[in-house]
Records
---
Amino acid sequence: MTTRSKLLCTLILPIFLLLVEATHGQVSNATTRFASHPSLSGASISAVVTDLVTDEVIEEFDGSRRLCPASVWKLATTTAAIEVLGSDFRFRTTLAWDGRIENGTLIGDIIIVGGGDPSLGSRHIGTGFDALYTQWVAAIKAAGIDSIRGRVIGNAAHFQGDGIPRTRIWEDMANYYGTGVSGLSIHDNTYFVEFRTPAEPDVLAELKRVHPAVPDLKITSEVLSSTVQADKAFIFGTP
């Protein structure tokens, strides 16, 4: 877990406790106690409690201060998704073929039509991409196809645009917590970069490999070795 992740996990719980106390009209005192905690010395804190029916501001603590809500904002986006899509919504990814089949050979293309599923081939679900690959191979063979004379085409047109807002910090853009959305993502829209790191600090680390392999990806690395055992390297990349 990175230092950034630890910080967010630490802050989320007090914020929930703050909102619980807010239901008893004690938000001001709770926020004051929260903001005065020694571990938050120098931090910027803002809280606003609003009645969602009347839009009345019940309580606030430096409510006009502009702050980045970080991962806490996932609560709002998740709630909105459930409200709009429904709790039983499922993403749909379609595996199709185009052309003709002759003696088990597809003279044409396999087409993967994305539906915006962020968990397609996710390493966090079962055996990840391996299970998905096995399922797709079985479906292709069941259609009477054992070889292809054509292409495998990924169609990501479900979403249009770059998938990353114009205000995204460049340092976050190509890292796992700032990954953009796509109509067709796989493997959590993530690749891993492995280094061979010298024991002594401030020496250029050797880039060993990228996996899964990304065609035409070129990385210029300036990563140095360090005695700090944490994720302090960033990938800079644009859509």
Note: The beta strands are 47-50, 57-61, 94-102, 105-113, 147-148, 152-155, 192-196, 206-211.
---
Amino acid sequence: MDRKSLTIGVLTITATILLVANLIPLPAPAVASQVLKDRDYSVVTARLPSGGDGLYILDNRTGKIAIFNWDNAQRRIRPQGVVAASDAFER
């Protein structure tokens, strides 16, 4: 087996591996629209109107909503505020 045949064989195997890797479907990306509901709390992730990802935590006992967002610059969660659920949906 000469050098040219070896190179063609290696390139053929590499091309086959890359073709198979492109045909395998990737897992679904994470989406910030998940809901977790329990008896006392409801937790929702969503996009904030100001941009970025937000975490809304509703305390079902007191009727208060706490809003948090992710600060990319400082790499931490920042509280945005706590409001009554009835005030959050008023126009």
Note: The beta strands are 35-37, 41-47, 53-59, 64-71, 76-84.
